[in-house]
Each structure stands twice: as structure tokens, then as C-alpha cells.
Design goal:
Elements lengths: L6 H7 L1 H8 L3 H9 L7 H13 L3
Length: 57
């Protein structure tokens, strides 16, 4: 698993993560961006997004 400094570098460097992120609902993207320093891998991005989406149900 590759780690990056933050969300912005992850999205710049990983096309799969970028596609996943931009496919998320706007409110999820906004929440993730508030914690961009903590989102440093595709796995952490998916985990955080899934947690936020679980609250939708």
C-alpha cells in the first residue's frame, strides 16, 4: 500500500483514487477534504468514504 503526504498528492498521483473520489457525493468529498492530512492512501480514502456513506442509510 502506497502512502502520500495528503489527499491532494494522493489524487495527483493515483488515477484510481482520483476517479473514486470524484465519483463520490459532494458532501462526502467535502468531509474528506476537511481531513485531507489524514487521507494518505487509496485504502484510507475508501475507508473514510464508506464510513460517511454508511451514515446515509
Amino acid at each position: 500500500m502506497k502512502h502520500y503526504r495528503d489527499l491532494n498528492l494522493l489524487l495527483e498521483s493515483d488515477a484510481e483514487a482520483k476517479q473514486y473520489f470524484y465519483g463520490l457525493p459532494q458532501y462526502v468529498k467535502e468531509q474528506i477534504q476537511t481531513r485531507s492530512q489524514s487521507v494518505n492512501s487509496f485504502e484510507s480514502l475508501k475507508d473514510y468514504a464508506e464510513n460517511l456513506l454508511r451514515g446515509d442509510n
